[in-house]
Amino acid sequence: MVWRVIIGTFSVVLTMVVFGFVAVTEQDRMASFERAYNSRTIEAGAALFQNNCVSCHGDQGQGGAGPALNAVDLFNGVRLKEIGWQGTLEAYLRGAINAGRPRASAAFQNDPQRMPAWGQANGGPLRSDQVESLVAYIMNWSEAFKDASGKIPTATATPNPNAVGSDINVELPAGDAANGQLLATAKGCTSCHVAAAPGASLVGPAWMADQSPDGKGVGTHATERPATAEYTGKAASPEQYLLESIIQPSAFIVPGGTTYGVNGQSTMPAVYPQQLEKQEVADIIAYLLTLH
């Protein structure tokens, strides 16, 4: 009888110790589970972004044919304030991915393309959990902009001293055509200037000879066009012609395309003077000059 009491008491004490240990460690266990879950969600979002978003927003969200998503003005609230959004950034991203963006950002107002609906509820291909993964992946970029206190400064960012700027007389370094070809895809250029399939429509003038109405590639156009009567820009060389088309797209709008310009303004985004660095532009131009 005494041994039963002792064993029973020991069992009760042991049970209390076990439950106490679980209670003490539960918070850490749940935090560890949440970190692992968030990591998996971000990884899934990264894969979805690479498969669906890079052609417009760039391989690292730096922007291209569409607005930059890996940008301080998105995470510090400046961009949302400009458009009058009153909700959270997560809600904004979720809505934009799910239902698309019928209203273009300021720098893309002449672009005839709009962000399509990606959520299945709105006719798109992505499930709700995939949309949430994309939101998590984009939000993860905000960590790089936080200061020591964990906040994202609202002050205007210091201009990039290596940005190409908007002067077509700027001196560029020697270009690397091979890297320029990679950049053209990463920056979203090919999504507008290179047809993905035979007969597919283009948003901007064709780069490839077999997709161009006159059978000439952009390298040939850059060489010949500055000397023609139709040209209204100020370029004096093929390199300068291509530079002008990137950083001053409205200086000369290629005729023949109904989507190339609206009321004298090019539909090409006016973001590249600050978004692209001199070396990047030099590389892209070197690549374009190989396309005849």
Give structural notes:
The protein is built from 12 helices and 2 strands; from the N terminus they run ααααααααααββαα. It has a two-stranded antiparallel sheet. α5 (89-99) packs across α6 (128-140). β1 (261-262) and β2 form a beta hairpin. It is mainly α and 292 residues long. The protein has 2 domains: 33-145, Orthogonal Bundle (Cytochrome Bc1 Complex, Chain D, domain 2), CATH 1.10.760; 177-288, Cytochrome Bc1 Complex, Chain D, domain 2.
Fold blueprint:
Layout: H1 2-52, H2 54-57, H3 72-75, H4 78-82, H5 89-99, H6 128-140, H7 177-186, H8 190-193, H9 218-224, H10 238-247, E1 261-262, E2 265-266, H11 272-275, H12 278-288
Antiparallel strand pairs: 1-2
Helix pairs in contact: 1-6, 5-6, 7-12, 9-10, 10-12
What shape does the CA trace take? elongated
Question: C-alpha Rg, in Å?
Answer: 26 Å
User: Count of helical segments?
Assistant: 12
CATH superfamily grouping of the largest domain:
Cytochrome c-like domain
Low-confidence stretches: none
The beta-strand count equals 2
Count of the domains: 2
Query: In order across it, which strands form the biggest sheet?
Result: 1-2
- Helicity range: 40-55%
CATH T-level fold name of the largest domain = Cytochrome Bc1 Complex, Chain D, domain 2
Q: Taking all residues together, what is the mean pLDDT?
A: 87
**Secondary-structure class:** mainly alpha
Order of helices and strands: HHHHHHHHHHEEHH
The fraction of residues in strands falls at under 5%
